[in-house]
Automatic annotation (TrEMBL), chains A, B:
<protein>
    <recommendedName>
        <fullName>Cobalamin biosynthesis protein CbiX</fullName>
    </recommendedName>
</protein>
<dbReference type="Pfam" id="PF01903">
    <property type="entry name" value="CbiX"/>
</dbReference>
<dbReference type="InterPro" id="IPR002762">
    <property type="entry name" value="CbiX-like"/>
</dbReference>
<keyword id="KW-0456">Lyase</keyword>
<keyword id="KW-0479">Metal-binding</keyword>
<dbReference type="InterPro" id="IPR050963">
    <property type="entry name" value="Sirohydro_Cobaltochel/CbiX"/>
</dbReference>
Length: 131, 131
């Protein structure tokens, strides 16, 4: 069973996470080979180690971590590899992989460009102080 | 002339910004009514005030700020409105608007879900320690 973990930054405000929950829900309708779950770097639970433990308990032999960061800075280039190295030591039989950051996908950037342009164009029709 | 500012967090690593530069480049091929530029909350230049000043100098009478954040936490809900209020006072003749955060668009979340699923599926074909 192949589990997918969406790895996001985390924030103090619980509402911050809903887009990631919506993304996971979309993915679950297409990914039928295993669970799709969330994990956070900080400020929110579960952290990546707890999320990996949970998927292993559910029976995943393979887990892929997808960094949900538009820009790939220290969190993606340093914090995540350090976490992954520790987790590979703790779970030697697990196929544990991570992908590039979601913002490094050109398809994503084209979709973001289309959405940003639509939002900006729509904004011209609204009142000048909104939102 | 309607300028669009993509407002991103910023990071210490200059390479962090390239997805946002790629998004702006995609947008420029479609948005012909004015400039598309970047602005950062912290750690990178220009900040939002400097970026707004630059677009006003270029002749923009309207500027829309699109927050390039997947989750909308304190940066989008508190920091950005405070900046916008100050900028509206400084530029009383300017139509200055902001939109919802890019991650609050369902189209974006569907595109992110598709991309995350593709990355996770491709990862199973790679070596178990990569990347």
């Amino acid at each position: 069973m192949h589990g997918i973990l969406l790895f996001a930054h985390g924030a103090r405000d619980a509402a911050w996470a809903w887009p990631f929950e919506a993304i996971a829900a979309h993915m679950r309708t297409h990914h039928v080979d295993g669970p799709v779950a969330l994990a956070y770097l900080e400020l929110m639970q579960p952290g990546l180690p707890e999320a990996v433990d949970a998927l292993v308990r559910q029976g995943c032999q393979a887990i892929t971590v997808v960094p949900m960061f538009l820009g790939a800075g220290g969190h993606v280039r340093r914090d995540l590899p350090a976490l992954m190295e520790r987790l590979r030591t703790e779970h030697p039989g697990l196929q544990l992989r991570s992908t590039c950051a979601i913002g490094e996908s050109d398809a994503v950037n084209r979709a973001l460009a289309t959405a940003a342009l639509a939002l900006a164009t729509e904004s011209l029709a609204g009142p000048s102080t909104a939102p």
